[in-house]
Amino acid sequence: MIRSRKGTPVAPSGEPGGAAPVADPHVDRVPPADELLAHDAAEAVDAAGAADHAPLARPSRRLEVVCAAIAVAGSGALVLLSRAIEVRRETGGIDPRWWPELLGIAGLALGVLLLVVAVVRPPFDRDDLEVATRQGWFRVGLAVVLSVAFVLLWPVLGFLVVTPIFLVAATYLFGGRGWKTLILFPVLMTGFIYLLFHTLLKVPL
Fold first, then answer.
1. DSSP secondary structure of 120-166
2. What is the pTM of this model?
3. What confidence tens digit (pLDDT) does each residue in 150-190 have?
4. Half-sphere exposure of 89 toward its Cβ, with a 13 Å CA cutoff?
5. How far apart are the first and last CA of the chain?
6. Measured between alpha carbons, how far is 9 from 141 in angstroms, rounded to an integer?
């Protein structure tokens, strides 16, 4: 106990009766070190996420017109190529030309509709998509290479050999993982396409 000059006992804290000093609410509290570290870590994570996030794509009328024109040209080519398929015996009904020609006509109609919509109305918003990146273009290039290899190897190795290999490679390229995705899906899809076209529609594969 400390005594004042007049002999009156004074508490060590400077408050009467030895009470603890009352904190001034107007004085800013210094946060503990762990709170400072957690705050800095959260800010670093937010900054890294903002840096990695690619900017969103903008509406583009030209892109819509180009895509629609490609769809029209591709569908028209499919119609012409399907009509050039040789048939050993004309049945007048469903033959090997029927299914690809139907797909080509449907695609041609949809392509023309998309072209008209792209020219007449304002371009669609693409705020749910990101702009093209180098990795995206790389994947597109690999997909084109895989498609060309599939078309070239099909007559040499056969549909049942080339198709599952192509599906496995394409699925892995675009993020598919796991044995169900990389094994079960290609096998079932190859079997379904073979039964549909080769067995039911009599389209030689």
1. HSPPPP-TTSBPP-HHHHHHHHHHHHHHHHHHHHHHHH-HHHHHHHH
2. 0.54
3. 999 999 999 999 999 999 999 999 888 888 888 999 999 99
4. 2
5. 103
6. 88
